[in-house]
Amino acid sequence: MEGEFSQSLTPPVSPSALDHYCDSAPSLPSCFTCAYEQGREEAGRFSSHGYISRGVLKRLLLKLDPAPADFEGDTVDIFDFPWVTETALVESTKLLFGLLRQKVLKLEMLVQSSSHDFGQASSLHYEAEELRQQCVLFLSYVKVFLYRFLEPSQSLEEGPVHPYKDLESQLPSVLVEELFGITLLIGRLKNLPANVQSAFTILHQGKLFPPSWQLLHLHLDIHWSVLEILHLLEQRMTGQIVYAHQFVNLTGETLTNISLLEDQVNNLLCDLIGLAMNKYNKVRPTEILKTNHYHCLCTKELWILLIHFLEHRSKTLHTQPFWSYVNTLIQTVLKGVPSGDRDPGLPGHCNEPEGFTWWLLTHLAQLGMHNRNGVIQQKNQLEDNWAFAIELLKSSCDPKRATQEEQVRMVVHCCLSLSLIWGPNVSAVTTLWEYYNKNLNGSFTVPWLGVSGLGSISRTPLCLLQQAKSCCSPASVSSSIHTQLYRSANSFHMFLRILALHLSQEHAGGAPWRQIKGRLYSKFHQRRMTELSETGLLHFLLLFLVMAQCAELRDVASRACDLLAMLPADSTPPAMRSLHWRGQLALVLLYLEKGLDCGALAEQLAVYFSQTAREFYLKTTEPSRKLALWVPLSSYLEGVSEVFETSPSLMLFRGEAFKRRLWTCVFPCQQKCRASGLPLIPSYFFSFRRVQQRCNQPPHTTAESPGWAPLPSVAKERHQAVASTLWSHFFPFLCSMRLSQTPPSQFADAAAGFTLLALDMPGSAPQKLQPHPIQSIMQSFGWDEMLHPLLVTHYLNHLLQNGELVSWVSSGPGSGSAQALCVRAWMRCVLQQYLHKCQDAPDSRAGRNLDEQLAELTRQVFQLPEVESVLQKAGLHSAAVREPKPALALFIKAVGRWYCELQVLAERSSMVSRALEYVGDILKYIKPYLLNKSREGLQLSYWVVGCLVKHWSHLLATTKAQQLLFRIVDVLLLPHALLQQDSGAHTQMLSALKDSLPLFLQGLSAAVGVSQSQGAYVKQQLHSVINQYLSRFLPATPSMGAVVNHPVLLAACESNITPQGERLRRSILQVLRDNFLQFKGHAPPPRLAAVLSFLLELLKRNNDTDPSLLTTPLPLVLRCLMLVNEPQVKRLSTEVTQLIVERCTASAGEQPCEHTISILRAFVEENEGVYDQQVYNVLEVVAVLHPSTVTALIPFLSLSLRKTESKRGLGKNSSLRNGYKKLLGLLGESGQAEMISLEED
């Protein structure tokens, strides 16, 4: 190294002159980096510090200054020393390159000595980064120097030459030597240590990187800079070859700038391909296009730099293009190194050389779409490589190799990607067709992909056509749909995409079709068609549908029909016949889409159908044969349904042909087979109404409709004929199935279609439906109470979505009744929803379907004008109610509230009639639940009817509706079975009744107050219900939980006193008095403690102040207090007595309560002479609570005492008088005065 310094003619400038000479410091030079930059990956941009983003590549190719803003000063700071900008490289070439080698070696030593200590990570990062920036800055200076200051040497002149000129003339040769030396120093990428190569996989989210990462990217910088420098040198030397004299003299080898550049390109490409090969060995087949061949963005950028660099040299200097270099290297992967050639040094092992080649070609082609600015362009920036790809494709599709589908799928996937990038190639199409023609019956499945990799037979013509169309519009090469195609499509589908690309070339004038037409048609003939399996026939149909979509439709369809006609009718399996018909119907759909007359195709299909239907109808046909024939027949019906949905007119199946061929098959069938024709009818009705509406519109221009479209009068006549056919043939079948408990899913659609047909063409309906066909049909399929709820909900949802029919329901004849019947049908479906749900699996598919239909019907019913009017007048809003059950409760509440607000008698009477029309025979709807004891059904039924009784109490109390109220009480509240105390078979019913009993009691109580003719009977029924269920749900012993949650107690509790609430509590107290507190002689009533606990809770939870109500149970409570010595009864009786006396006294004000005094007086009279002492004990309890009440009784008590003594005739009774005196002692002054009076007796 000392020798290198000794030759320097430009010693470092004095530090004191640094500021004077360094006019401007260069900015950070361009370099490879994949450090994280926000938004870069999402936008697909390269690093802002890279060669592409900074325009280095563009300036190189345009022969512009490599760094126009840098190195403008007189001196430049390189390797921490200032140098004269214009002479440093000439005068100190070896010194500067020696310093470069020093920095590289120092960075390598830093990598070797670095540890995993996080404490040193920051210092190591900045030290390594500084070393790398110094090296990159020097290489940038070399490029700038060559561009700005190097002058090509002129012819030698005699005379002395300036030393600088001599050094300048030697610079190109020395530069080549130094560049060669630095490439030897750093070696090739493949030879880097493993710890350095591992830096390719470092996550680049942080800002600190290990020295190995800096060293690796410095290698990339040097490799690319060597190519840049050599290219600039070649430009500056104007084509002169530069020889490295030292190496010629020492080794005898010829080293030139051209040979060094070629070696550098080959070595660099070889190393990059080797890195890609190592990565490919870990790539799964399903991720071929998702996994790139480069390890990081830096290697991606290097690939793009090489592509544009080599393509530019090829065009300007006539050197090899990029693909020539790559093809040569890939050939060594495929076939090995030819004898005598130098080994490029590729890895020796590759799992699948051909697969790797396809993968690499595809991803390199994608990189070729980037322009010089790194932006992806639609137009390919790189010439195609089809010549090499075609040879590779022929090798991959060689029939002798028996390639598996997983390899073929990957090959075709890559081939499709290349077609999208480079444009289609006819040789690729023909090569692939030769392969698939021989394997047309293959399934093309990959076993380890599972279900996702299996081919599927399209069930309908539309699905078949859509599958073909999906092949005609392949997604872009960078889309996720395309990259996932390996999983979602087999190789044949990918081939169809390639074929579609070829046939759809713009500005080709039909040439692609003419190129391929003969090759495709010639492969199919009679023998070939008979050899097709079901899968092969599917592939045949997809092939011709793709050709029909992309090429000449009429020609392809005619050829396809001719070939399909070659299938033997007798020996073709029903499944293949079904597929055959679906294929032709798909062509019909394509004809309709293009606006072409499909009459001939439809007629041919009708002939096939008629022949099969005739065989199906024959009585001599075996049942198994009929079952097999039904497969194509039902498939045909489904296909015709789809055709009707897309048909612009009804010309497809004209009048007599339609009736003769379709109905001849459908209607003699058994019910199950006939039901399979149901999907056809809704589709036909949909098409029928669309066409009829179009015919009713005035024509705008003749150019808008095809020439084969019929005149309006002719179309109307045909429509009438078809409508008559439907009414006469299919409507009776629907009527026969309407009460089925398992209606087909399309049954309601067909019924709705007939209803709309009657709306559009009422005259076409049969005579038995006249004069109001719509009402008759809706009665049969929507309002009949015997219909299945799923059928009704589906049917009404169809109709109520139709604005014209809703207008008829709102304003047509009997519109009010029609709306009420729709509401009744909705209420019945809500109530009966659990009749048809499996008890073990309520979330079954049928159950979910009914739930969805009910929710939709609820929404539709609440949009009926009459329902909206009821809610509006009641001041209620339905916006927040979505579920059927709360919606039904809201509607019931709205009707009841509106009735209560009506004042005119006629309006109230009309409203009662309409309300009864809403509910219908509601008890009939819920009767099945009472029989089968369905828990959910009983809960719903009792809750809904309870809401009805509560909110319609005033309405049900009228003469018109009271019979419904009485039936509700008899059937739900007081049925004979429930009155049997020993019956244990009605647990579910009692559970449901217990939850809803408060609603019933509150409603009955309100009805008692407003009923005029039958008020006494309603009150009697109310008492019976209270008596029955107060006893039924009352525990034997007072349990707090059972008492406080007793349904009768819950019904009677209210925060604010209302007349109906007070009336209910009075009834409950009367029932308690008459049935639960009566003594039988001296025996107390049963469950007395529980009864008293209930009574106490009832009084506590209400703030009643009416003494007549409060004192209803008081006499019997006093009797309990007097005769029962059980502590719990004593306590409860005392608390009840205290509560009653306090409430009564509070209501009476300062004076004693007369009700209380009269009851106490009666109590004393009833028990005087028998329980005198016990009476005084009871009065003592009252005296303690409220002395004034007992004080008012003193005269009466003294008189009663004297009468008792007189009757006995024994004089003064000291024991009685002592008990009485004890009571008087609690009464203050009045008591003392009375005691003095007694002493005087």
Annotation field: number of helices: 62
Low-confidence stretches: 1-25, 651-672, 700-709
Q: How would you describe the shape?
A: elongated
How can the largest sheet be summarized? Answer: 2 strands, antiparallel
User: What do the pLDDT scores average to?
Assistant: 83
Supply Rg: 51 Å
Count the strands? Answer: 2
* Quaternary assembly: single chain
Lateral strand order in the biggest sheet: 1-2
Task: Please tell me about this protein's structure.
- By secondary structure, the chain is mainly α.
- Among the domains are: 56-114 and 121-151 and 164-337 and 344-376, no CATH class; 671-694 and 712-761; 1160-1240.
- Helix content is 66%, strand content 1%.
- The protein has a two-stranded antiparallel sheet.
- Strand 1 (75-78) and strand 2 form a beta hairpin.
Short description:
By secondary structure, the chain is mainly α. 66% of the residues lie in helices and 1% in strands.
